[in-house]
Design a protein that fits this description.
alpha/beta, elongated, 13% strand, Hypothetical protein af1432, Beta-Lactamase, single chain, 50% helix, 512 residues, 18 helices, Rossmann fold
Length: 512
């Protein structure tokens, strides 16, 4: 995908003038005249496009309070003798050892060199220069400032590069751990802000991105958005977006290139399968050259994850469809509706989420639950579709469907089918140990089996069967309530009863 992530500027190339903070310089000396002279001599000084802002301190104690709160000071001009004969030296040690500030440049200025011999001080204390106050002519002071600020600038460049690399690795890892396209889109939006340490807003369109929308049948749809666009509905067409955002999307799709502006970037992805996605992010601050470089690294890696997620989702969609087709085929053989397996899967997923399962396990449960009765393929029609009550021999045959389902599904090493095998085997076990086929009791029954037991019984009761008419929903709920601690896990029943509106919504979504 190297040719799918080329960045172009849609504005003429020019040197960006940024409103940057000035260099922060602390003058620490108990003589006010030293402060005034330094300020006057350095008036009008600039380095790397920035002037100076002086912080005036007259004691080491005053400086400690400031340095404990700030880490943006580039240079400290430090006197030795203040409240004590060694106040300046003690402060230098405190800065390096206690505050762990290794970035600030410390220049020792003394009017009493005999009390702090240069060789001893340079060897013992982590300072960057040593000057006698009488040596600091205008020219020498200029040299001190240039050398110190240049060193600080280069240290901070390395620090930013280190932090940027760490942020890029963390951000890429977070995005790579996404399990679906919607989570991927949200993660991209979150991690771009983390990566740049800026507060940006955006969304994803045309199948994924930071302004995340997806393209289906030629239409761009929103996949994820930051809080500034929280009014947008997921899957809403991007025609609802502000005109400048629509234009950014249009330009990226037209040129099939990622683009930068001074305050925004639009990232374009094009998969080998032909799907497209655009990520749009806008920022209050100008995007620096360093930020652009980080974004290019980040988006190149994100593109690889995007491609693999599309493939994964296609495989998972195929798997889900196959499972539903298999489940519906079994249900149709027993003259039940195909909506039964969908409802059981959705109810099971809801209870799984309420019980504390992580999202990945909830999705596995949603896919595996429809296979709960797959063993009915081995039950004769005369038993499966008998319109009345089964006799003891017929009931014994019917009970074998739990073991048959387990044996059919357990042959696969795929996680979903393994979970389906467990559900098929255990969804007729009872909390009190009186279920079948093995008479398991309590927590010995797999949590998925306990969950599907509730989902299956509920839907079986409210659905018409060859041997009964459909129950009212309220009557079926009472049956579940009365079975708590006997047939069903009482904690799961409590969750079920506390979330009946969500259960009823599933029935509205998947009617017979």
């Amino acid at each position: 995908m190297s040719d799918d992530l080329l960045f172009i500027d849609d504005e003429p190339a020019q040197e960006t003038v940024r409103s940057l903070a000035q260099w922060q310089v602390m003058i620490l000396d108990d003589e006010p005249a030293v402060h005034e002279v330094t300020r006057l001599v350095m008036s009008g000084f600039t380095f790397d496009g920035k002037g100076l802002e002086f912080i005036h301190c007259y004691s080491a104690g005053e400086a400690v309070d400031i340095l404990s709160e700030r880490n943006d000071i580039a240079l400290i001009l430090l006197d030795v003798v203040m409240e004590t004969d060694s106040a300046g030296l003690d402060l230098a040690r405190y800065i390096r050892e206690d505050l762990k500030n290794l970035n600030v440049r410390i220049v020792l200025r003394t009017g009493q060199p005999g009390q702090a011999p240069e060789e001893h001080v340079i060897k013992t204390y982590d300072i960057n220069d040593y000057k006698e106050k009488t040596d600091l002519t205008h020219g020498k002071l200029m040299t001190v400032f240039y050398a110190s600020l240049r060193a600080y600038r280069d240290i901070m460049r390395l620090e930013r590069a280190r932090l940027g690399l760490r942020r890029a690795i963390d951000a890429i890892t977070e995005v790579y751990d996404s399990h679906n396209l919607r989570r991927f889109a949200s993660a991209v939006l979150e991690q771009v802000n983390y990566l740049l340490n800026l507060d940006g807003d955006g969304l994803c369109a045309s199948r994924v991105s930071a302004y995340a929308a997806s393209s289906e049948d030629g239409r761009l749809k929103v996949l994820a958005a930051t809080e500034a666009y929280s009014g947008l509905q997921i899957d809403e067409d991007v025609e609802q977006l502000p005109s400048d955002v629509q234009e950014a999307f249009h330009n990226a799709l037209r040129d099939r290139r990622s683009q930068f502006g001074a305050h925004y970037f639009t990232c374009y992805y094009h998969s080998k399968a032909g799907s497209e996605t655009v990520v749009y992010m806008s920022f209050a601050d100008v995007i620096s050259a360093d930020a652009r470089e980080l974004l290019e690294i980040f988006t190149a890696n994100v593109a690889i994850t995007y491609e693999s997620l599309l493939l994964r989702e296609e495989i998972e969609d195929t798997q889900r469809s196959t499972i539903f087709i298999l489940g519906e085929a079994v249900e149709k053989r027993s003259k039940e509706t195909g909506a039964h397996v969908k409802r059981v899967g959705e109810i099971a997923a809801l209870l799984g989420q309420l019980s504390g399962m992580n999202l990945r396990d909830v999705e596995f449960l949603r896919q595996a639950a429809p296979l709960h009765d797959v063993g009915k393929i081995g039950i004769p029609d005369r038993v499966l579709n008998k319109p009345g009550k089964l006799d003891p021999d017929e009931w014994a045959i019917m009970q074998t469907h739990a073991l048959i389902g387990f044996e059919v599904l357990n042959k696969s090493d795929k996680r979903v089918l393994q979970l389906g095998a467990t559900i098929a085997h255990e969804h007729h076990e009872s909390w009190n140990g009186e279920g079948y086929p093995r008479g398991l009791k309590g927590a010995d029954i797999h949590i998925a089996g306990r969950i599907v037991a509730i989902a299956d019984v509920l839907d079986a009761l409210v659905s018409p069967r060859c041997y009964k008419i459909a129950w009212q929903f309220s009557d079926a709920v009472d049956y579940i309530r009365q079975g708590a601690g006997r047939h069903f896990d009482p904690e799961l029943v409590a969750l079920f009863l506390a979330n009946l509106p969500a259960i009823e919504e599933i029935y509205r979504k998947y009617p017979d």
